[in-house]
Amino acid sequence: MNIKVGVIAGAALLVAWQTQATEVNVAVAANFYKPLQLLVADYQKQSHDNVVLSVGSTGKLYAQIVNGAPFDLFLAADQRRPQKLVKDHQGVASSEFTYAQGRLIFWSKQPDLIAQNSDYLKSATFKQLAIANPKAAPYGAASVTVLKKLGLYKQLQTKLVYGQNIAQTFSYVNYGNVKQGFVALSQVYRDGKLSQGSGWIVPNQLYTPIRQDAVLISNSVHKAAAQSFLNYLQSAKAQQIIRSFGYDIPKHNQ
């Protein structure tokens, strides 16, 4: 009889644990998807909550949130959309913070194609250049800014091939559809070096800093669990992981 009681008690504890577990739905900009996968794996070592990721361009994810998509958190690739959600009372003001500052790289899958300078880009001898859609993706807008500051935009405009987001843009270059393009440094960088290919890391002064903000969605039904994950993203361990992908962390976040 004691054994039965123990089994029943154990089953009750399991049911209670499963009941307490919460599913946190996160809308994440495409550039941060790979780092976030690693962050979620680390976070779930200390939490029983299940973090579910939906990836896309910042513009499209923002539109989904505005139209009532059931996300708990928004990790954008800019500050403008999270700030607009807060202004329109669709984001929790006290939760918003800059979790990373993105970097842009002119990159090719070919190991020796691009030197660590802008010479190959300025030569304009290539047929196509991949960038993310500048209307929906902040990394695409940054790419256009770089080309304009270098005086190359008019010359290269007809060669531009647009990805819907930075993930699709990376796929174009990674699979050889286009030999070169502007992608997020985080897509090709790990632990202080390029993981593959060749590229020129674009100097920060050539484009507006890509400050990426996170915000808790006002109509979230899992606010406590979502805030817990936001708190983790601001921890020293999380920031170490974020930096390993080539992101900067704004000083006020440290």
Automatic annotation (TrEMBL):
Pfam families documented for this protein: SBP_bac_11 (PF13531)
Keyword Cytoplasm (UniProt): no
InterPro entries hit by this protein: AvModA-like_subst-bd, ModA, ModA/WtpA
UniProt keyword Metal-binding, yes or no: yes
SUPFAM superfamilies assigned to the protein according to its UniProt record, in alphabetical order: Periplasmic binding protein-like II
Keyword tags: Metal-binding, Signal
Signal sequence coordinates: 1-21
Annotated family: Belongs to the bacterial solute-binding protein ModA family.
Name used for this protein in its record: Molybdate ABC transporter substrate-binding protein
